[in-house]
Amino acid sequence: MTLYMLLIIPWILTVLVEGGAARLFFSIDKKEQILLLLVNTVTNPVAVFLSLVLPAYTRIPFNAAVLAAEALVFISEGVILRKCMIWQEKEYSPWRMALVLNAISFGTGLVVSMLL
Description:
Layout: H1 3-26, H2 30-57, H3 62-84, H4 94-115
Helix pairs in contact: 1-2, 1-4, 2-3, 3-4
């Protein structure tokens, strides 16, 4: 599988899963949905790339690289969502949203990878 496909397939899956979960669990509007799409467009390829490159070129084990990349994504998304969304009108925090969406997306990715 090419690097292109290794970056595109997880991004599509992430956008679909996190977008659907955000609408379902957090009732985000269309503007916030676009923000989430843009955030995932930046963070997902970085996470996938780090997860593949760190174990290949360093002594960092794959699982540690994945956890580090996911932590970086969670922090990045939490900061961006906090800065760009109006949280005073919401019943949830940007950190909770980032944590829940990333957990759902990560879990979905694990299930899909086990099925392939």
